[in-house]
Amino acid sequence: MELYHKSTCHFLGKLIIALTWGILCLRAAECIEYEALSCRKHTALLTDFGGKGDGKTSNTEAFRKAIHELSKFATDGGAQLIVPPGKWLTGPFNLTSKFTLYIHQDAVLLVSQDEAEWDLIPPLPSYGIGRDNPGPRFISFIFGTNLTDVVITGGNGTIDGQGQLWWTKFRQGQMKNTRPYMIEIMFSDHVQISNLTLINSPSWNVHPIYSSFVIINGLTILAPFHAPNTDGIDPDSCSNTRIEDCYIVSGDDCIAVKSGYDEYGIAFGMPTKHLIIRNLTCISPSSAVIALGSEMSGGIQDVRAENIGAIGSESGLRIKTAIGRGAYVKDVFVRGMTLQTMKYTFWITGDYGAHPDDHYDRKAIPVIQGINIKDTVAKNVTIAGKLAGIDGDTFNGICLSNVAIEMSQQANQLPWNCSNIKGVSSQVTPQPCALLPHKKIDCPFPTDTLPVDNIQFQTCAAATTMH
Ligand SMILES: *[C@@H]1O[C@H](CO)[C@@H](O)[C@H](O)[C@H]1NC(C)=O
Ligand SMILES: *[C@@H]1O[C@H](CO)[C@@H](O)[C@H](O)[C@H]1NC(C)=O
Ligand SMILES: *[C@@H]1O[C@H](CO)[C@@H](O)[C@H](O)[C@H]1NC(C)=O
Ligand SMILES: *[C@@H]1O[C@H](CO)[C@@H](O)[C@H](O)[C@H]1NC(C)=O
Ligand SMILES: *[C@@H]1O[C@H](CO)[C@@H](O)[C@H](O)[C@H]1NC(C)=O
Ligand SMILES: *[C@@H]1O[C@H](CO)[C@@H](O)[C@H](O)[C@H]1NC(C)=O
Ligand SMILES: *[C@@H]1O[C@H](CO)[C@@H](O)[C@H](O)[C@H]1NC(C)=O
């Protein structure tokens, strides 16, 4: 059986790069090109494994069988699975190494609402408990663990989480287990998630955890404002992560940087570090554009965010922590935020509360040190900054420079409210609180290049119909 159209498109791909690709790709009719960390030698279509894109037939077995078969090519150039145009109803499935899942621009994955299709897996070790309920959690829709070199991409193809049923059950207190996430990759390296539209996730959308060299770009993530916990992207205990060119409208934080929960996160001890966030556009009426925490018990260090745009969001940069979290948030650099209609521009909370259980260490005091924000414009803002450290635990090294905040006409509170913090400010309007005295300074932003920024994409190709 001609399952794997190995050579044609690969060969074509190379020619395409070398020559003008118009005529060639016309001749191949269904040849697509995309950018990825690595290209694959073998190609298969979901239909090769009995997939039916009619929006009704379950494709769970087709996906699982396809990936199981294609995993055999991991030591022979890897494989790509193409999801052709159509509506593909499916339950969750696991990815494999040296593998690409490509979702065609006219393909929609419809996520199964049938709980019986979802395996239960243990809580994350750095969290100790499930988020919705203490016990096990449903596996994520697209799940991968202990992988290397895995790509999930498409020509802006769609994954529809069909979350409504899960949101309702959650709100009515009917979830016995934690709701699934849309995409979760654990203990992996060289992971790419790009050029997809994710809508209506049951809960968080993209959750890379305990992983390194993670590149996330070109995602459009949409969820209704009322949809609970529909965070956009949650880099969690990851190092060297790059998030670029994403557009997120959601019912929770657009980006929430995390690293584990109280005593479980402290024991696991895996920080999120070397994180780049660029060219983000966010609308998040009830949450943050970029949040750090509240789960940060493995530590968060070296976050570099730039060119961030948001409208109609609750806060621009948010830090959430509490006694019991321990660890640190340090060396955070933000430049180039453009914000419109915000409740808070900056919001730092040292009393976030919310503990996994009552066994947290009352002496585990978080260290917040080196929060640098510059070149920011915010309009129609209710509170310029609420910056609250913890009694006996001053949040240090806060630096604001070249920040212009226009207060809304309805704003009747003092623009700044600061306590237990220490820092400086330069060219900031309205005039900051006394705990951020003026000092002539341009807050720092690192000039070195992180290893994840050196990763280059290759141009890959694949046929999307059978010959
Ligand atoms: C994503 O799509 C954009 C626009 O079509 C394209 O320029 C970019 O190369 C794609 N990126 C990847 C990683 O495929
Ligand atoms: C996917 O991986 C998880 C964790 O390793 C496992 O529990 C589950 O059974 C796997 N699912 C399938 C369909 O193989
Ligand atoms: C995955 O990697 C983690 C961390 O290295 C390890 O503890 C775990 O046993 C591995 N799991 C599997 C299924 O190999
Ligand atoms: C991807 O699709 C979404 C939803 O249809 C759309 O809003 C967005 O503009 C598209 N992105 C690109 C790069 O085409
Ligand atoms: C991302 O932002 C940089 C400037 O920070 C800009 O040069 C670049 O064009 C932007 N990319 C996109 C795709 O908007
Ligand atoms: C300003 O913000 C208020 C909410 O605080 C909103 O109702 C109003 O529409 C915004 N005005 C503009 C011009 O964006
Ligand atoms: C400032 O914040 C504290 C809590 O951190 C609150 O008790 C106080 O009322 C606030 N002050 C003003 C003027 O809003």
Automatic annotation (TrEMBL):
Family statement drawn from the similarity comment of this UniProt entry: Belongs to the glycosyl hydrolase 28 family.
UniProt keyword list: Glycosidase, Hydrolase, Signal
Gene Ontology MF, one: polygalacturonase activity
Annotated Pfam families: Glyco_hydro_28 (PF00295)
Signal peptide: 1-31
Protein name stated in the entry: Polygalacturonase
GO biological process, one term: carbohydrate metabolic process
Organism: Solanum lycopersicum
Isomerase as UniProt keyword: no
